[in-house]
Automatic annotation (TrEMBL), chains A, B, C:
It comes from freshwater metagenome. Residues 17-90, 104-178 form the Glycine transporter domain. Pfam families: Gly_transporter. It is found in: Cell membrane. This is Unannotated protein. One of its GO terms (cellular component) is plasma membrane.
Amino acid sequence: MSNEQLQWWVTNFHLPFEVLGTLAFAFSGLIEAARKKLDIVGMAMVTAVAAFGGGTLRDILLDRSPLFWIANDWWIWTILVICGLAMIFFRARHLEFTERAMQWPDAIGLGVFASGGTMLALQAGTSAIVAVIMGVITSIFGSVLRDIFTNQVPRAFTDHQPYASVAFLGCWVVVFAHWLAWPAALAVAVGALVTVAIRLAVMIFGWRVPSWRV
Amino acid sequence: MSNEQLQWWVTNFHLPFEVLGTLAFAFSGLIEAARKKLDIVGMAMVTAVAAFGGGTLRDILLDRSPLFWIANDWWIWTILVICGLAMIFFRARHLEFTERAMQWPDAIGLGVFASGGTMLALQAGTSAIVAVIMGVITSIFGSVLRDIFTNQVPRAFTDHQPYASVAFLGCWVVVFAHWLAWPAALAVAVGALVTVAIRLAVMIFGWRVPSWRV
Amino acid sequence: MSNEQLQWWVTNFHLPFEVLGTLAFAFSGLIEAARKKLDIVGMAMVTAVAAFGGGTLRDILLDRSPLFWIANDWWIWTILVICGLAMIFFRARHLEFTERAMQWPDAIGLGVFASGGTMLALQAGTSAIVAVIMGVITSIFGSVLRDIFTNQVPRAFTDHQPYASVAFLGCWVVVFAHWLAWPAALAVAVGALVTVAIRLAVMIFGWRVPSWRV
């Protein structure tokens, strides 16, 4: 398989996972909005923030313009359609079930956005540590902003189950692959795969991050 | 009346309403600062955030530079003078009265900023839906950031009285007028008028947005 | 002493104070993270936000790119090392002692960042009042964002002990020195000195800002 073919496969293989991850993040916003009994506007905003907040903050910090959801506005329509459907079909008794069902897609989102964000930063010419931080920001700040908008201490900061720290590890895989001069799409795919695999292991085996002894 | 004359009239007709709307937003910040017993610094910051937060976020998201209040710094002086006067003259017994008195100017602010933000985005070349979202952000994120800074769930997200959704409708009017190739100032004026009219109807007749049945 | 020599002395004299101030801000984040029992990720994020939040917001508002911590990524390593050491050595019984010990470096941070932020804005060509606001934002928004991220009303807004208002005064000193065409480094040093001196006086004599009579 030539390099171009590889690139093509990995790129197109990437999109469904990105969509799946975004949906998982969006649903996490939707669930929080329902818990806090927000109205339709709050629901749409918190859903959008959960889905796009991380990537938006990354783009602002890197001074990338236009923002990805301004350049690809079908993302906005997707959120609006999800909110409309949720208004019609979503009920209190679905909340817990949805949250459980979203754990796996959420792990995929974590991997895809952490790796993708790292690569975007590397391609913008940042140093390794900045790229890793950008990857972590891309993958977790949707949930951080979601929690700030609903007036809670961000769960990503208190969870004690490795989440952002898993993304942190996966981002270094991308940096390492980039340093080995692998094609970008492959580096992202491998980084995402490692992140998802570790995150699933964390969920299955119940690993914990070291605690403060404060 | 020629096109230039029309443009001139609508533009100059616009400014007093913009000032009135900004004052209403600023006072909403002032009131919240008084409720939370912030000191003079908190008062100035929350007042400024309530007045300028929406436009600032819009400019950052659209990568417009310099920000409108950096380019027109008399806005800052206005806020500082308001805060100074409030320190001297404002008392607890004025809170409720001020809040009621500000409902009408606030509706004007909603219309003016929603329409103006939409037009700015359209002129920056965004698609229709992005322009509408920018209009909504311009008009409501001052109040959203005000509530986040004072540690509350944003009222714009929980109110169940149509506010942002009214702005959303009004923004589409601007997009439609722009598509009809109306002069920008006229499109903004009509969009603002429609928004204000619907918002006043909402307040008078007590309309509600559809509720979650969660 | 020639102008160049003066410049050299003041510039190099500046760095240790900047580092000291950043450390004080970082520790304020660390302490808050410990109080709220955040995990290691939350600790790193809140520490980083407290240390860099003000300068980052200033750079975004002024559309300066790249951000200072993207251009100088050893800042990030410093934060990570601090968090690592804190995980190992920091205990609950150290909290109060650390907070008291940090009051003086914190005053230095206030002065250095307020003056530095003002000068950066002036050099970017803003007007005097915008430069002063940027100085205040640089010096206090680390703590504001720290408190928002840990779900509290920002202490800088409720403290009634002059903090941001002291920075506000010091920023005007920088503007005045700049207007007198003093060399930038000297203007910053004098502005910082005035700010630190007033802040220490505030702490020693227990001065208060005027209260709301609401």
